[in-house]
Specification:
The protein has 463 residues and is mainly alpha-helical. The chain is 75% helix and 0% strand. It has a single domain, classed as Growth Hormone, Chain: A, CATH 1.20.1250. It is found in: Cell membrane.
């Protein structure tokens, strides 16, 4: 296949898309598989932090503090996601999307596998939590670099009328990763219940990452580079210092885009961050459900999140990115106010219902994100723009959401304050979405940088 993006021969069209359906399917499949493996690893840690890490790595701090410290290690990795985004953005805008995706996948898989082999505090003392934190930091760097490359590979290959649904493909990796992580931990909780799960059962899903990483690496290796990047390379129009240009011209846009994601991410991290798993299984808490039951409920909610993420991308191609977000924000707000009243019934069925309802809004505000972000930034700095916006949104949203929720419950003795915190984050997402213009269908190639540089912020004409 010719890789010249401006020729009709060899499969590429002047609009920068792949014309062959088989090639499109390969790109979609590769982005779904790769991001699923990445997020399986990332969420596996968060679930384990809620279930076992407090006891195994932070026990000397005492039960309450140990759990807070365990959740803090989940949030700590988010502080390093911007570093991963900066590195990946620089490399991705200069050397291509594909090479970055191979690097992030390998780093994440190696870190996760090593966590599965890590001795506990009882064996090596304080070195155990230190090594755990270091490996979690490497996971954070990898996650910070992964998302931008995956969504650009999907969106920049897509026809302009299908960017929403193509961009939803890598987004599906998030609920799929949660589904797999919760499913594997739930399976191990059944196979090795009680003390056996604490002793060795939790390690098996981490060690499985080694196999998944080989599969993901093989699939991604078969995918062509993004046609937009190939065109930039042919024209030698790559920006020398993309991150410098991004913050010099688009700093406000990065912040607003980050806040859009923060409104989704803070709410999503009630499950992906392990908080609900811990809250609902804590034997000393108000719910006290069995671990396997709660993980089963989370797995079902992840399946619902998967469905509505795809629906969100599909709808965004029909009514626009902003309108889809507004529908999603309304649904998310309903889910936020129903969540804890249903969880606090201590009924597995109602817990599942609450999580499934919440996943409707989460999916509708996550599915359109890839297309929205890709259409916000000029081609020459797009990788840096989407990666850094996403990473900052994760820090502002989900990084410490489980720790904040735990602190609010400890301070107030109930979950009402957590509900209002999540509602507030949702409203921040609404306001940020209102500030952006809908740029659905804007040309993404380097021929249209002048049009792409017009500010997508309402009331601002130039970057």
């Amino acid at each position: 296949m010719s890789t010249h993006p401006s020729r009709r021969s060899g499969g590429f069209t002047p609009t920068g898309t792949i014309s062959a359906p088989a090639d499109r399917r390969r790109v979609v499949f590769a982005t779904v598989v790769g991001t699923t493996v990445e997020w399986y690893d990332f969420f596996l840690y968060a679930s384990a932090a809620g279930l076992v890490f407090g006891q195994l790595f932070f026990a000397p701090a005492g039960p309450g503090i140990a759990q807070v410290l365990s959740f803090l290690t989940v949030g700590l990795s988010f502080l390093f996601r911007p570093l991963g985004a900066f590195l990946a953005g620089h490399l991705g805008d200069k050397y291509g999307r594909r090479v970055v995706l191979m690097l992030t996948l390998t780093l994440m898989g190696a870190s996760t596998t090593l966590i599965g082999l890590l001795p506990t505090f009882d064996v090596i003392g304080v070195a155990a939590p230190v090594l755990l934190i270091l490996l979690r930091i490497l996971q954070g760097i990898s996650a910070g670099g992964e998302w931008g490359g995956a969504v650009l590979m999907a969106v920049e290959h897509a026809p302009k009328t299908k960017r929403g649904v193509f961009g939803a493909a890598p987004q599906l990796g998030t609920p799929l990763g949660l589904l797999l992580a919760s499913g594997m931990l739930g399976l191990m909780a059944l196979i090795a219940p009680g003390d056996a799960f604490l002793a060795w059962g939790w390690r098996v899903p981490f060690l499985l990452s080694f196999v998944l990483i080989i599969v993901g690496y093989y699939v991604r290796k078969k995918v062509e580079e993004s046609p937009v990047f190939l065109e930039l390379s042919e024209r030698k129009e790559k920006t020398r210092a993309p991150i410098v240009q991004l913050f010099r011209k688009h700093a406000l846009l990065v912040l607003i885009a980050a806040l859009v994601f923060a409104g989704n991410n803070a709410v999503g991290y009630m499950t992906t961050g392990g908080y609900i798993q811990r809250y609902a299984t804590n034997p000393d808490g108000p719910v006290g459900l069995a671990t396997a039951d709660v993980l089963g409920a989370v797995t079902l909610s992840a399946a619902s999140w998967l469905l509505f993420t795809w629906i969100g991308g599909w709808v965004a191609d029909r009514i626009g990115r902003r309108n889809t977000y507004f529908v999603g924000w309304a649904a998310q707000l309903v889910g936020v106010f129903l969540l804890f009243p249903l969880v606090n019934t201590a009924s597995v069925g109602l817990l599942t219902l609450g999580l499934v309802i919440l996943s409707v809004g989460l999916g509708l505000t996550y599915g359109p994100q890839a297309a929205l972000y890709a259409e916000l930034f000029p081609a020459s700095i797009r990788f840096s723009g989407v990666s850094i916006s996403y990473a900052l949104g994760a820090v502002l949203g989900g990084a410490f959401a489980p720790s904040i929720a735990q602190a609010l419950v400890d301070a107030t003795g109930g979950t009402t304050a957590v509900t209002w915190y999540l509602a507030g984050m949702t409203l921040i997402g609404v306001v940020a979405t209102l500030l952006l213009r809908d740029r659905s269908g804007i040309p993404l190639g380097p021929d249209h940088e002048a049009e792409q540089t017009v500010s997508p912020i309402r009331g601002v004409m130039r970057a």
